[in-house]
Amino acid sequence: MSAAETDAGLGDTSALTRKILIGLVGGMALGVALNLFAADSSVGTFLVEGVFYVVGQIFLASLKLIVVPLVLVSLACGTAALEDVAKLGRIGGKTLGLYLLTTALAISLALIAAIIVGPGEGFDLASQSTGFAANAAPGLAQTLIEIFPDNPFRAMAEGRMLQVIVFAVLLGVAMTLAGEPGRDLLRVFESANAVIMKLVFVLMQIAPYGIFCLIAKVFAEQGPDVFEQLLKYFLTVLGVLIIHATVTYPTLLVLFARVAPMPFFRKLRAPMSVAFSTASSGATLPVTLRTVEERLGVEPSIGSFTVPLGATINMDGTAIMQGVATVFIAQAYGVEIGPSGYLTVVLTATLASIGTAGVPGVGTVMLAMVLRQMDLPIEGIGLILGVDRLLDMTRTAVNITGDAAVSCVVARSEGKLDLETFRAR
Ligand code: ASP
Q1: C-alpha dihedral, 114 to 120 to 125 to 131, nearest 10°
Q2: Residues 144-177, buried b or exposed e (16+ Cβ, 10 A)?
Q3: Pocket test for ligand 1, best of 218, 274, 278, 318 (most atoms within 8 A of CB)
Q4: How far is the CA of 309 from the centre of ligand 1 (A)?
Q5: For the domain that residue 78 is a member of, what is the CATH number?
Q6: pLDDT category, 3, cuts 50, 70, 90?
Q7: Residues in CB range of 47: below 8 A, 6 or more apart
Q8: What is the C-alpha separation between 93 and 96, in angstroms, rounded?
Q9: Which pLDDT belongs to residue 94?
């Protein structure tokens, strides 16, 4: 039994997961009921705009509250625990390679499905305007420069995760190199890490209620009418997300981590529910990290590196949406893409998903980058926004599943996956 499961008075982990799932399903049911029967009533408005909004935002704030300190402290400890810069390079290389590979696979699946289904056929928009105006996506040079922090406090205050990750890794390396003072500081960080992980656990107790409110609000606000024209697009994205999660990741786990996928998915139910209701990989990070380390048995020296990095750059679900959306928009505007065009989509959507921040809706903003590269009308994004919220929620759940799967594979390859914990109930 892990430490988390014996937290007296706060309930065990499986009871919490059960409550989270009840919150998820209950929120959906109430949201749909409100949408159907109380859309414009004062009680409906009071609940949706008042109670659900307030509780949902408080839950989101409680998650975001711990992200920066958690990443800083756990990653610095993790890096210091590796005790060897070469090892760090090797793990970094494997992690990045797997993140890129799974993302490229995800887009390829998305393109194949979109070509077969043809979600944009039947639209004839060549001469119409959707009224959508995209913001300019940042250039590659600026994006590269901005990975490196010039002020760690600003990076933390502004929540720039890649910069925080770079700073934490450097700090961890320096702690290893500094000898005795380094070890003293490491002990402080390790204590802070244990306390912050406990804080994650404490804050998770409000997750069922937070999830209930976030989900109820979304379903109360999204009527069935938005799906009418976009049903094919919606179902294509959803279908590929489900295939990627239930085929690609289990295959990865079986082939490269040599573990059965069932315990993986059972334990991932809680972080997936949080990701689904918050539509933010960043906000879900504390829960993902805790699950990966404490329930899947990935050693912190690996998990503290792979999970925050994944939450920031590994977005398979987002890439899937971007792939299908590009084909959809091309078809809707009657533009041929062609084989070399599809290759360009794979490359640019991989980059666009890396550049997507783990917050709600950014995937559609970054889609502009792919469309611009393909010379497709950027205002086509306006077409898909109606159904984006639900897809955003689902793709975020896939995004964090990818982070967890790759973490298990990397840990296993380094002999740092505790199989007993992985298999435990
Ligand atoms: N909401 C997604 C995430 O946080 C990003 C996106 O696709 O918009 O993972």
Answers
A1: -80
A2: eeeeebeebeebbeeebbbbbbbbbbebbbebbe
A3: 318
A4: 14
A5: 1.10.3860.10
A6: very low
A7: 34, 216, 220
A8: 5
A9: 95
* Residue 133, pLDDT score: 57
Give per-residue pLDDT as tens, 127-150: 555 555 555 556 667 777 888 999
* pLDDT tens digits, one per residue of 27-73: 999 998 998 888 778 888 888 889 999 999 999 899 888 889 988 99
Residues 186/77, Cβ–Cβ less than 8 Å: yes
What is the position in ligand 1's atom list of the atom closest to the CA of 364?
8
Q: Write the residue with the smallest CA distance to atom 3 of ligand 1.
A: 358
254: left (phi over 0), alpha (psi -120 to 50) or beta: alpha
In 253-338, which residue ranges form alpha helices assigned H by DSSP?
Answer: 261-267, 269-278, 281-290, 300-313, 316-332
Alpha helix segments (H runs only) across 83-122: 85-117
Q: How many domains is the chain partitioned into structurally? A: 1
Report, as an integer, the average pLDDT of 119-124.
80
Q: Of all atoms in ligand 1, which is nearest to the CA of residue 279? A: 1
How remote is the CA of residue 131 from the centroid of ligand 1, in Å? 23
Domain that holds residue 406: 3-423
Dist. CA 246–CA 289, nearest whole Å: 21
- Work out the number of other CB atoms within 10 angstroms of the CB of residue 141: 8
Residue 353 Cα: closest atom of ligand 1: 7
- Tell me the CA–centroid distance for residue 275 and ligand 1, in Å: 9
Return d(Cα 385, Cα 349) in angstroms, integer.
18
Pocket test for ligand 1, best of 280, 309, 396, 401 (most atoms within 8 A of CB): 396
6 pLDDT band, cuts 50/70/90, is very low
Mind listing the pLDDT tens digit for each residue in 303-362? Answer: 999 999 999 899 999 999 999 999 999 999 888 888 888 999 999 899 888 878 888 988
Name the DSSP class of 125.
-
Ligand 1 mean position, distance from CA 146 (Å): 20
* pLDDT score for 127: 56
Ligand 1 centre to CA of 3 (Å) is: 31
